[in-house]
Design brief:
Alpha-Beta Plaits, two-stranded antiparallel ribbon, alpha+beta
Length: about 90
Amino acid sequence: MREAVAEAFRNRPHLVDTAPGFLDMRVLSPADNADEFWLLTEWTDEPSFRAWHGSHDHREAHKGIPRGLRLDPSGTSLQFFVTVAR
């Protein structure tokens, strides 16, 4: 389903783009595993992300996920980082 997932990200509804605290989003795929996708978002702070993650718009934004796609819980996690330098 790699191409269907990539296409869904390319055509995403951009609902997160106007969420308070949202700064940027990148969708990455490791060069050695094209079936894997990494979603990297940048926020002004963790509370802004958590507010978005629990919102109606978050659920709406995921309606474009290809039918039949199942996330592997063992490979799915949230990690939070602090910017050290740019």
